[in-house]
Amino acid sequence: MNELLRIENLHVSAGGRELLHGVDLTVRTGEAHVIMGVNGAGKSTLLHAVMGNPAYTVTEGRIYFNGEDITDLSVDKRARLGIFLSFQSPISVAGISVENFIRTAKTAVSGQQQRLFPFKRLLKTRMEALDMDPSYASRYLNEGFSGGERKKNEILQMRVLDPKLAMLDETDSGLDVDAVRTVAKNISEFHNEGNALLLITHLNQLIRYIRPDHVHILIGGRIVKEGGPELADEVEANGFDAYRNAAGEA
Amino acid sequence: MAEERKKSRIDDVARSIYDVKDAVEYAYKTESGLTEEIVREISAQKEEPDWMLEKRLAALRLYQQMDIAPWMPDISELDMTHIDTYVRPKTDMKARWEDLPENIRDTFDRLGIPEAEKKSLAGVGAQYDSEVVYHNVQEEMEKQGVIYVDFETAVKQYPELVKPYFGRLIAPNYHKFAALHYAVWSGGSFVYVPKGVDVKMPLQSYFRLNAPGAGQFEHTLIIVEEGANCHFIEGCSAPRYNVANLHAGAVELFVKKGATLRYSTIENWSKNMYNLNTKRALVEEDGHMIWVSGSFGSHTSCLYPDTVLKGDRSTCDFTGITFAGKGQFLDTGSKVECWGRDTHVSIHSKSISKGGGAAIYRGVVHIGPKAAGAKGAISCESLMLDNESRSDTIPDIIIENDNIDLGHEAKIGRIPDEDIYYLMSRGLSEEEAKAMLVRGFAEPISKALPLEYAVEMNRLIDLEFEGSIG
Question: Among residues B382, B397, B415, which one ends one of the domains?
Fold first, then answer.
């Protein structure tokens, strides 16, 4: 399998503080990776650094995507290479409909004009799969959406944009039991031999659906343990204490 | 890739089609500057009745005496001695499109007027330079008794309708440029909607300037009789020139008892234009005045549509957006005077400034001593896209009656970086992301416009961002 994402010795700072202290991670096409860790461990920072959020500065190390060094690439160019991030707290935009937004985004990432009716059909199919009311297509982007609806809207975008690497930042939080199942089903339907997943989650329910190939435990800005799906079970049973100690934290 | 995409976009109307400058032979052109002789010539050329010439000359005397209002933006670059006040294209009024001279027809083709015609919109009055050259009123409207003609025709054919209303709402002494307007007015629209008539299709008018140094002083007079209903759309686009240009039109609107008038404007003057336009509406009891106003162009604008809520229970609803880019000083707003009882005022203003442009909201709500029960809400939202741009809100509220309920809110902000980041993470470039967020901000206005104008407005916003970064 191809090497899709390679992160080498990544150091990331924000607001004058270093949040990641040398992270190495490789994701191959067809794989699913899960990152676990306590709050504030730097999990979201890692995903935002890969996406290129200008609020985070890479002070050392490189990020490669499909062999290309993307460390200094702008956010939109990364998106057009096939990198997608499902935000933990997606913003809302008044005056722009969900359909208009996703159609514009699809045009941007695919480089192809999206014809109106085929696009409407695609969107409708994807919304039905997510149990989303079709009226949401004409609503303003995330305006008045509940936390759960916003998360579904992120997964909707992932499915329509069809990225090569989908990074999901706690997409399952804020969802009720049924919604977790629906979202998990959509994620596993999306995942195939031609793409890869990089998830942050606290929930084993999602992990059971996705069956990750690799689990990474991130504590204090460092990956302290890596393993297969059994590692997630162990964390669920015992918590992060053992790894906190390993990272030299109280 | 990006280039290909641009070509296939349905709403991709290049700005250049609005910047077309045709070689026009002028049949008649006055000396630069303004004298009594010029005013007499204008009047003679139009074969006007004496009463109109008298009004012109009286206005000219006022113009020569009056000073420019001290609060006005700087217009010192505007040299009146170099403004041709009257330029007439070499064509007489034509009723049929096919009969127009080819180069003028070509310009209008590019502005999309035949398309509007095909869509059987109610009527198109297109102003080419200072003279209306093409005008058409659909038969069914004539059957309803609706009059929609250019202003010169109205003066000659309907003096009994024009004379009592002309200059009544905007007096020549209203301000210096109103005086100028009455001295040299040329072209414009006259609309009369008889009692109880509902004009289903919006009446549209295109204004265009096409001569270096040519001023434009069109007069618009609309009378909507009792219980009648009308929507008038004023769209302006002009080619670019280096010589300072002045627009000092006047719009007088009479909304009678129980009548409704919606007046929409998308203004996109070239960036050297001084747009010192005056608009005023008088609303009788139970009448409704609705303004939708988009100001994008011009070098300097002073535009504050004024609504007099004379009748009891009359209402005014103003929705406006102003977009000031590099080198632009757009001083816009709204004035409402409440005289009757239980009036209602709603003012919703949005402004965007970027590239060092200045967008000023200047407004007055004056609730008179007899206007008990007045209710109103004023909101002003400003978006500044960079640190060099300017946005001011100057809301003046004068209240002379205790029994009223008026709220005012003002917000000035920027586009949050995280919003731009979110949109860019979906593949939009920084320019596209900002343009989309601004389009969203402007959406309450575009929603209030007919589709083709909304498309044009969104296109204008996109153009402001193309190639603006990096």
Answer: B415
Residue A85: its chain B contacts at CB < 8 A?
A: 425
Distance, in Å, from the CA atom of B76 to the CA atom of B93, rounded to the nearest integer, reads: 36
Give CA–CA dist B381/B135, Å, rounded: 38
Question: Residues of A with CB below 8 A from B439's CB?
Answer: 95-96
Task: Round to whole Å and give the CA distance between A236 and A230.
Answer: 10
Range of B324's domain?
A: 17-415
Size of interface A-B (CB pairs under 8 A): 83
Q: Are A79 and B425 in contact (CB under 8 A)?
A: yes
Q: What's the total number of domains in chain B? A: 2
Distance from the A176 Cα atom to the nearest Cα atom in chain B, whole angstroms: 25
Domains of chain A: 3-90+164-246 (3.40.50.300)
Q: What is the pLDDT along chain A (250 residues), one digit of tens a residue?
A: 689 999 999 999 999 999 999 999 999 999 999 999 988 899 999 999 999 999 999 999 999 999 999 999 999 999 999 999 999 999 999 899 999 999 999 999 999 999 999 999 999 999 999 999 999 999 999 999 999 999 999 999 999 999 999 999 999 888 888 999 999 999 999 999 999 999 998 777 788 888 899 999 999 999 999 999 889 888 888 888 888 766 554 3
